[in-house]
Every structure is written in C-alpha cells, then in structure tokens.
C-alpha cells in the first residue's frame, strides 16, 4: 500500500508524470553535484510501485534501471527492498539479458567479426620482413587464437557472459562484445526493439553522460520510433562526464519533444564551494546550482606552490596543518580525516607506486577507461583471480589455493581426464607445481609476465586468450627486428606488452587503487561521494596528455587547436581538465584546499581571481 503521508513534489513529481504507461514522455534530467539524483530516482520508482504495480504485472512488464556500477545497483535495489518489478543492473548485465536468447544472430556477428580480424592479421603477417620476429610471432598467435575460435563456433550451442568468472569456453563473450552486439541488435533489428519495449516500457539510465555513445544512440533511436509505447529517462550531468566513450553532444542532440527537468539545489556542498563550482562550469555550460536553506558558509583556499618543490608530500602535510588553523578544525591535522584527491590518475600512479602497470594501458584511448576503473576481462582476471591466488600461495593458505585453482582452472574438473583417472596423483602434481610457483615470488622484482608465464606453464589457472597472446614479449620487439615489422604491432599490443613487464608490487598497488584502499581516490571512485575535508592536488608534472592544469589556470598558452576546440564546443584537454576540477571540488561538504603546482604562480593567481574561482585573500603563495 502507498503511504499517504509521502507525496512527490517538485522535480520528482514532474518526472513521475512523464512515466505514464499510456502517455509516455522521455526526458534528460540535469542533476548537478550533490543534487540528490539517486534519491529522486528511488522516489520515482517507489511511486511507480505504489500506483502502477498491478498494470505492470498484468502486462508482464517491468521497469528497467541501468546503473554504472554494481555498488550503485545494489544500493538502489536495497532502497527498493529488492522488488522484482524492477530490473536494476549494470549496462553489461542488462544488455546480456536482452541478447542471450539470440544465439544464431550472435554467432553470425562473431563469425563476420572474426573473419575480418583474421584478414587484417593475415595481411600484417604477410608484410612482415622477419617472419620470426616478435611482432610477427605475436600476430601469428593472435591469428591462431581467432582461427581456433572461428573453427569452434559451429559447436557453440549457446553463449555465456559472466563479469566475475575468468573461465572461458568457445561460447564465452567479453565485456566489449556484449556492448557492441547489443548496440547493433537494438539499432538494427525490429525484433530486438520489440523485445525491449514490450518487456520494459520504462527504461531509466543513471550516469547517462558516461554511457556508451553507440548504445545510447540506439536507445534514443528506439524511443523516437516508439514514442507512444516507450519512455526513456536519462539521469546525469555532462559536467561530470569522466569517460571518453560517452556521448558528448547529448544535451544538444536529443529530439525536440524531450523534457529537460533540472535539480538545481545542491544538498551536499557549503555555500562557498557551490559558488566555486558554479564559476568553474561557466566555461562549459550555463547550469548553476543553489545551496539548501540551512547550508553552512564553508571554506576554500588555493595554495600555489613552485613546481620545483622536492618533497611534495611533506609540503602537503604542512598545508593540512595550515588548513586546521585557518578553519579552526583540528581534524585537518589527521591524515585519515582528510580526503586527498588527484585530478589525474598518472599522478596517483607515480605517488602510489603502480605507474609501471597503469601508464602503458591508460595511454591508449581504447584501453584507458577499462584501466582507470579496473574493468575488462584481462584486468578483472589479474585483480580478482591472479592476485588473490598469489596472496594465498605466499601465505601458504592451502585451502584458498585449492579453492581458486578449482574455480579458476580446469585442473580439478570433470573435463580433466588426468584428474578423473588419477585424482590423488593430479593433486600431488598441483601441490608440487604450486611450490615451484612460490619460488619465483620470492624475488621482489618478479614481473607480471614472469608470473603469468609460470601460471600458464603449470596450467594452475585458465588465462584469458588475449593475455596468452601478450605473453610473447611483444612490447618493444627485438633490437634487430625490422622497424617496419614493429610498426605492424597495434598500440594495444604494445601497451599490454609494457604492462606485463611491470613488477608484481606495482600490480598489487594498482589493484588497491581501483578498489579505493591505497589512500588515493580515482575520479570515477569519488563521483557521487562526499567528504567533509577535501584536498585537491594539481600537478602538471604527472598530467599525461589528456589533461593540462597549467592551461586551465592560464600558466600556459592555449594552442590554436585548443582555441578551435573551445569555440566549437569540442572535447579537449582543457574541457576534460575543467570537468575533473569541477568533480573534485564538488566533493567537499565543509572545507576545500586546492594545491596547485606551477612554474608560473603569478599567472595561476591571476586566472584564479579573474575567473572568480578564488578571491585574493583566499590564495596562499608558497
């Protein structure tokens, strides 16, 4: 029964009115930082449950909600008391549930794709001057792997997808394949469109600004062709767009009949921080937020530091102590009570000791998003299976070692004839191989490549096919290998080759980083979160090629291309950096310290004042 004491008001009521099963409308909700987006989403869903449950049940329909992370999905399901009328899931899981009955269509798609890849690899191999060079051999391995998969397609009776399992079979699909196949099927196949709208007359997408562009365009196309049957609701804020795969023209390319409600109250930040983030986003759009009625004034400071400072960690500790005095808040003196955020992952990688693994992967656009948020089949295998296995071996935890081997390989399974014929002997061999594996871990500089090669040698775990290809030491090529052959190697192959040469220590730190336990916060990790005290560190020494804080703060001239991109509203290092600056500053609930390292402190100060980000008396030159 609906609680009569709870009434939707404002934007929540407005959005619910769009989700009329008999007269649906679609919308894009602007929900800036701290605006209570998740609260609105849950309120609207609860209202649907209260008023429209019977109709949905009679029609055999559900309401679908797509979230960006499993954590967000779990939180929303918990608030809705796990009511089965709502399908709340990540984008990959949602798409997989749609496409998995279409085995024949999936098989045809995979077949065409594999044949195309095989043709490309065959051409590369034929052009190689040294057929035994590492590049040619790597391409040959990849060709063999794809040909094997193509040959086995005829035997596939059904396909599988599991984001938490690393076991592969002839019918296993990876993350990117699920999205690609789903996007094409939804865009091109009338049957798939009918399945979607008949099963889910309402589809709500959280963090829509970071949803895969091709998939989002497919959903929008379906809505345009089924306006009287299907309501598509997008929740998000383009200023908080983190990933490069999103639709950057979302706000300007929607059909003219879409509604555009807005949540303008910021319930998180103090007044001073809201003024700051409103001024930051002036260079991107005209959206503004207002504080809640009882918002505190808050406190911000900009500390400008010479880039040549040697001990930056010590200096940042001193800044914390200074903030404690300025704010009369002693908790600034306690490191654990202050959230230190980095605007660029490369800076955290260098400080946190995982740059050997992350930087090669993040330098390739097609790998960057997966590397930064810890997804993809290869990375998931490394962080979720390989590292726990290493930890169990190092601790001599025999029970955990056996559990991981049983779940992560085929050694202890019905498909291993040796195990079926001689289980005791097989287990003894496994124990012996684990002892040999442990010996290589004693070396503190052991590389990921060493570890994976040994794992593969003893078949202790089933490695993803791509990693098997990358194990051929392809990152640089032999010194005597013709340069033209090395150029045939893709950027992805080179990046993974370099990443595999990273030490296991760097890989372990990387895993802690993406799991938010290293002491640094990733961009996507802090989006949606909030902290009482925030220190945002800007340091161009570690900026990489995607961001440029010196340009954002006027300490470095914009290039002609920068100016063109700004004028045309195109994404660039400047706009990406501005968005990241907005996201990080908007985490603060009470006080914020921005630490900017620069070779031109005067220019930083000038821009900060002219942009109305900070006043003269809020800037400290060190």
From TrEMBL:
Which key words tag this protein in UniProt? Answer: ATP-binding, Helicase, Hydrolase, Nucleotide-binding
Cellular component terms per the entry's GO annotation: cytosol
Which GO molecular function terms does the record list? 3'-5' DNA helicase activity; ATP binding; DNA binding; hydrolase activity
> GO biological process: any one?
recombinational repair
Asked whether the UniProt record includes Hydrolase among its keywords, one would answer yes
Domain annotation UvrD-like helicase ATP-binding: ranges: 10-283
According to UniProt, the name of this protein is Putative ATP-dependent DNA helicase
- What is the originating organism of this protein? Colwellia psychrerythraea (strain 34H / ATCC BAA-681)
């Amino acid at each position: 029964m609906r609680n009569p004491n709870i009434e939707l008001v404002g934007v929540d009521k407005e959005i619910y009115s769009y989700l009329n099963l008999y007269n649906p409308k679609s919308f894009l909700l602007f929900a800036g930082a701290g605006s209570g987006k998740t609260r609105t989403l849950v309120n609207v869903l609860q209202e649907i449950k209260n008023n429209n449950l019977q109709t949905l049940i009679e029609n055999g329909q559900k309401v679908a909600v797509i979230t960006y992370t499993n954590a967000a999905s779990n939180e929303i399901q918990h608030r809705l008391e796990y009511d089965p009328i709502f399908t709340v899931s990540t984008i990959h899981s949602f798409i997989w549930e749609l496409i998995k009955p279409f085995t024949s269509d999936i098989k045809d798609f995979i077949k065409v794709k594999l044949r195309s890849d095989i043709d490309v690899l065959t051409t590369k191999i034929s052009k190689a001057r040294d057929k035994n060079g590492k590049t040619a051999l790597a391409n040959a391995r990849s060709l063999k792997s794809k040909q094997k998969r193509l040959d086995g397609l005829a035997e596939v009776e059904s396909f599988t997808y599991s984001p938490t399992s690393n076991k592969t079979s002839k019918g296993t699909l990876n993350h990117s394949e699920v999205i690609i196949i789903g996007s094409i099927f939804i865009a091109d196949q009338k049957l798939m469109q009918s399945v979607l709208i008949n099963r889910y007359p309402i589809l709500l997408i959280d963090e829509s600004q970071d949803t895969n562009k091709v998939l989002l365009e497919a959903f929008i196309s379906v809505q345009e062709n089924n306006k009287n049957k299907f309501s598509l609701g997008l929740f998000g804020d383009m200023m908080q767009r983190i990933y490069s795969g999103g639709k950057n023209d979302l706000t300007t390319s929607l059909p003219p009949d879409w509604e555009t409600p807005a949540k303008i109250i910021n319930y998180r930040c103090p007044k001073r921080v809201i003024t700051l983030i409103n001024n930051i986003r002036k260079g991107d759009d005209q959206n503004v937020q207002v504080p809640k009625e009882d918002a505190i004034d808050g406190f911000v400071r900009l500390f400008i530091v010479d880039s040549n400072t040697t001990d930056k960690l010590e200096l940042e500790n001193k800044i914390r102590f200074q903030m404690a005095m300025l704010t009369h808040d002693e908790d600034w003196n306690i490191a654990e009570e202050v959230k230190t955020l980095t605007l660029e992952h490369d800076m955290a990688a260098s400080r946190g000791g995982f740059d050997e693994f992350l930087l090669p992967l993040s330098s390739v656009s097609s790998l960057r998003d997966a590397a930064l948020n810890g997804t993809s089949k290869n990375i998931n295998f490394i962080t979720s299976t390989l590292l726990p296995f290493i930890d169990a071996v190092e601790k001599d935890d025999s029970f955990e070692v056996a559990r991981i081997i049983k779940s992560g390989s085929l050694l202890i399974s019905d498909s291993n004839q040796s195990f079926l014929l001689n289980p005791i002997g097989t287990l003894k061999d496994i124990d012996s191989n684990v002892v040999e594996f442990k010996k290589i871990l004693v070396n503190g500089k052991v590389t990921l490549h060493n570890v994976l090669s040994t794992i593969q040698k003893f078949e202790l775990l089933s490695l993803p096919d791509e990693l098997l290809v990358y194990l051929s030491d392809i990152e640089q090529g032999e010194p005597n290998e013709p340069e033209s052959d090395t150029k045939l190697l893709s950027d992805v192959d080179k990046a993974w080759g370099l990443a595999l040469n990273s030490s296991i220590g760097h890989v372990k730190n990387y895993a802690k980083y993406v799991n938010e336990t290293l002491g640094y916060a990733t961009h996507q990790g802090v989006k949606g979160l909030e902290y009482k005290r925030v220190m945002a560190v800007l340091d161009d020494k570690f900026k990489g090629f995607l961001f440029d804080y010196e340009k954002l703060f006027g300490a470095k001239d914009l290039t002609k291309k920068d100016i063109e991109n700004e004028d045309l509203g195109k994404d660039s290092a400047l706009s990406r950096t501005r968005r990241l600056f907005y996201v990080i500053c908007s985490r603060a609930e009470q006080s914020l310290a921005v630490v900017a390292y620069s070779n031109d402190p005067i220019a930083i100060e000038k821009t900060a004042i002219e942009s109305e980000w900070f006043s003269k008396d809020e800037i400290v030159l060190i």
